[in-house]
Amino acid sequence: MNQVNQHDLGEAIRVSREERGWTQRYLAEKVGISR
């Protein structure tokens, strides 16, 4: 199994989120995560 670099994963999520115009809050709500 490949080890995922947390920074690279976070960057990929950020880029994908921003391309869609989503906020961090909106993405969190979509995946069912709360603070």
Automatic annotation (TrEMBL):
Pfam assignment, any one: HTH_3
Domain named HTH cro/C1-type: residues: 13-35
Gene Ontology MF annotations: DNA binding
Protein name: HTH cro/C1-type domain-containing protein
Source species: Enterococcus faecium EnGen0180
